[in-house]
Design brief:
By secondary structure, the chain is of the alpha/beta class. Helices cover 34% and strands 19% of the residues. It has 20 helices and 23 strands. The strands form 6 sheets. Strands 7-6-15-16-17-14-20 form a 7-stranded mixed β-sheet. A hairpin with a 2-residue loop joins strand 3 and strand 4. Helix 1 packs parallel to helix 19 and helix 3 runs antiparallel to helix 4. The longest helix has 21 residues. The termini are far apart.
C-alpha cells in the first residue's frame, strides 16, 4: 500500500468485513482516529467464534476458558480497556490452570503458582526433581517477562531505536526464552521418569499440541499466575457485546445478516463490497477481518497474491498441522448441582472411550464444569458441563449430506447461519459422542446421566456454518509451524496488505497468530498502518465510562478456603506495566 500523497484526498470512510473481535477492534480504533466505519457481519450477533447461545434456560458459552490480558501488568490489558471489554465486570481466576487425569485415576494439578506447582510435582515424583525445578523456574522468569511483551505496536512499524529498546527489555530473560522456544514440549516431557508426568505435561494447555515448544506453556501459566488469564463475568458473547457497545458509542455502524460476496476493485484499488443480496456499498478503505482463505481466494478471486500468499493459500493451508485443529464440543445442562466438579480437567482416554468420539485426533478430552466459570449463565442449583476434543473436519464431512452453509430468507430477511440438514449418519455420530461422554462422566459423578436436561453437540462443520472459517479451524494458522511463521514474516515486512491492491488491509486472527487478544491487537495494529499511510498520528484511549474490573481468586478442590477478591490498580495504570505482584496482594473484600 503506497502512502497517501499530500495532493491525494484524505481517506475518510472504511468498510470492515466481519464482526468478530478482529473486526470490532478494527472498528473501535478506526473510530478513535476519525474514520467513518461500517462493519458487515453475516451472523445476527457480534463476536464470531467468541460466542455463546441459549438452550432452554441455559446459556452455553463456547469460547473463553481463559482470556489473556484480563489483568494488569502487561500491554494486553491496556488493549482490552481501550476496547471497553472488561470494565464493570468481575474477572475470575482459578488457582489451578488445568488438571490432567491419567487412565489409572492419578491426577496432576497444574497450579498457576510456580512454587505450589513445584511442591506438588515433587510430591508426585521426587525422582524428576531436575525437570520439575527447571520448568517452574521458567514460569517464574516469564511472570516478570510478560511486561516486556509488545502488543500495542506492530514490529513492522517500529523504528530501529524502538526495536533495540524492545530487544533490550528481553535481555534479562533471554536465556529462558531462547531455550523454551527451541525445545518442543513433546521432547521436554520425555525427560520425566514418572509415566504420568511424561504424558501429562503435553496436556497442560488442555489438548496435545505437537508443534508447540515450551515457550507458550510458560507464557500461559505465567499469565495465569499473574491473574492476567482468568475469565470475564458474563462470558464470551458478553465480552463481544461490550466491545460492540464501545464501537457504537464511538459512532460506528454495524449491519448484521449481511454476507459479503465480493470485494469491489477498480484499477487495483479496493472501493467497496457487494453483499449476497446484490447491494453494493463503497468506502475509501476496505478491511477484511474475515476468514483468510475466503478473503483472498473468494472475495478477491485470488487476484492479488505474490509467491508467499499464493503458497500460503493454495498449498500450505491444506498440509497437515498448518492450521489449528477444529473442535467437537458437547454442552450439557444438568438439573442438579455438582459442586465437586472441577473447573477444568483433561482426561487421558483409553481405546474404548476414544472410539466413540468421531474425528478425535488424540485420545484425550477436556471437561469443564462451566458453571464454576460462569454461574450467571445457568439457573440456580443447576450445572453446565462443556466437554471438547480436537477433531479433524474430514471424518465429519465424510458423514454429512447437503451444503455446509446455506442462506435462506425468513420473514423477509436473508439469514446466513441457519441450521442445515447433514443427514442420518452425521446425526448418529453426534449422538454417539453425546452418549459416550455422558456415560464416561456418569461413572465419575454418580447421578450425572439422570440429571441431563439439555444436550448440544457442535462439530467443525458447525463452526463453518456460523463463521465461514476454513475447515472449521479455530483460531487460524497453527503457531510455531511454517505457515504461521511465513505469514508473520510477510506482514512484518510489508504490513497487513496484499501486493498490488491499494486501499485494502487484513485484520483479525488470520493476520496474526493466536487467539482473542491477538485478534483484538490486530485491529489496533491495522489502524496504525492505516494512519501511517494517511500521514496521521495514531491515537487510542481507555474507555473510562465504566469502573475498572474487579478480580476474584477461586480455589480449586478446597471448599473450606474462601475466594479472594483483589482490587486492581487504577485503570490508567495499565499503560505503565506495573509489577504484576501488585494485583495479587490487593486488599481482600
Amino acid at each position: 500500500m503506497a502512502r497517501q500523497t499530500d495532493t491525494a484526498p484524505r481517506r475518510e470512510s472504511m468498510i470492515i468485513v466481519g464482526g468478530g473481535l478482529g473486526g470490532l477492534s478494527t472498528g473501535c480504533y478506526a473510530r478513535m482516529n476519525g474514520y467513518r466505519t461500517t462493519i458487515f457481519e453475516m451472523h445476527e450477533i457480534p463476536g464470531g467464534s467468541c460466542t455463546g447461545w441459549d438452550r432452554s434456560d441455559f446459556t452455553f458459552d463456547w469460547c473463553i476458558s481463559w482470556l489473556l490480558g484480563n489483568g494488569p501488568g502487561n500491554e494486553m490489558y491496556q488493549i482490552w480497556l481501550e476496547l471497553g471489554a472488561l470494565q464493570g465486570k468481575e474477572m475470575r481466576h482459578f488457582d489451578v490452570f488445568n488438571i490432567v487425569r491419567g487412565r489409572d485415576g492419578r491426577a496432576v494439578h497444574f497450579y498457576s503458582d510456580p512454587d505450589r506447582l513445584e511442591e506438588h510435582l515433587l510430591a508426585l515424583s521426587p525422582a524428576d526433581a531436575a525437570p520439575i525445578r527447571e520448568f517452574c523456574a521458567g514460569i517464574r522468569t516469564f511472570r516478570r517477562a510478560l511486561a516486556a511483551y509488545p502488543f500495542l505496536k506492530p514490529v513492522g512499524l517500529m523504528g530501529r531505536l524502538e526495536r533495540w529498546r524492545m530487544l533490550a527489555s528481553f535481555v534479562p530473560y533471554f536465556t529462558t526464552i531462547r531455550r523454551s522456544i527451541t525445545v518442543l514440549m513433546t521432547d521436554f516431557a520425555q525427560r520425566f521418569r514418572d509415566p504420568l508426568l511424561r504424558e501429562a505435561f503435553n496436556f497442560i494447555l488442555y489438548e496435545k499440541h505437537p508443534a508447540f515448544p515450551v515457550l507458550p506453556f510458560y507464557f500461559q501459566l505465567a499469565s495465569h499466575a499473574n491473574h492476567a488469564a482468568g475469565v470475564p463475568e458474563g462470558g464470551s458473547l458478553a465480552l463481544a457485546r461490550s466491545i460492540e457497545e464501545r464501537y457504537r458509542g464511538l459512532g460506528g455502524e454495524i449491519t448484521y445478516n449481511a454476507k459479503v460476496e465480493e470485494i469491489l476493485v477498480e484499477r487495483d484499488r479496493a472501493v467497496g463490497v457487494r453483499l449476497s443480496d446484490g447491494r453494493e456499498f463503497r468506502a475509501d478503505i476496505v478491511v477484511s477481518a474475515a476468514d483468510g482463505h475466503t478473503t483472498v481466494m473468494k472475495l478477491l478471486k485470488g487476484q492479488y497474491l505474490n509467491d508467499t500468499y499464493r503458497r500460503l493459500y493454495t498449498s500450505l493451508i491444506d498440509e497437515p498441522g498448518q492450521l489449528s485443529p477444529g473442535y467437537v464440543s458437547l454442552f450439557l445442562g444438568l438439573r442438579k448441582p455438582f459442586p465437586e466438579g472441577d473447573p477444568c480437567t483433561t482426561y487421558l482416554l483409553g481405546e474404548r472411550e476414544a472410539a466413540e468420539l468421531t474425528g478425535i485426533r488424540c485420545p484425550s478430552m477436556n471437561v469443564q464444569f462451566r458453571t464454576r466459570h460462569y454461574p450467571e449463565l445457568a439457573p440456580e442449583d443447576s450445572t453446565v458441563v462443556f466437554a471438547t476434543y480436537f477433531s479433524d473436519i474430514a471424518p465429519w464431512r465424510a458423514l454429512h449430506e447437503g451444503p455446509e452453509q446455506s442462506s435462506r430468507v425468513r420473514r423477509g430477511e436473508e439469514l446466513h447461519t441457519l441450521p442445515v440438514k447433514h443427514g442420518r449418519e452425521y446425526m448418529a455420530a453426534k449422538r454417539r459422542v453425546r452418549n459416550g461422554i455422558v456415560a464416561f462422566l456418569d461413572e465419575r459423578h454418580p447421578g450425572f446421566k439422570a440429571a441431563v436436561a439439555v444436550a448440544d453437540v457442535s462439530t467443525p462443520l458447525t463452526q463453518v456454518r456460523y463463521t465461514g472459517v476454513y475447515d472449521g479451524t479455530f483460531p487460524g494458522w497453527n503457531p510455531f509451524v511454517e505457515g504461521a511463521e511465513t505469514m508473520e514474516e510477510e506482514i512484518k515486512k510489508s504490513g497487513p496488505v496484499l501486493p498490488g491492491l491499494s486501499n485494502f488491509y487484513l485484520s483479525g486472527v488470520w493476520a496474526t497468530i493466536g487467539g482473542l487478544i491477538r485478534a483484538a491487537a490486530a485491529g489496533r495494529h491495522v489502524v496504525q498502518f492505516v494512519c501511517r499511510d494517511d500521514g496521521l498520528e495514531f491515537t487510542a484511549e481507555i474507555d473510562r465510562t465504566a469502573p475498572p474490573p474487579t478480580h476474584l481468586v477461586i480455589p480449586v478442590g478446597r471448599p473450606a478456603e474462601p475466594a479472594r477478591r483483589t482490587v486492581p490498580p487504577a485503570v490508567g495504570a495499565a499503560a505503565r506495566n506495573e509489577d504484576s505482584e501488585s494485583v495479587q496482594t490487593g486488599a481482600l473484600a
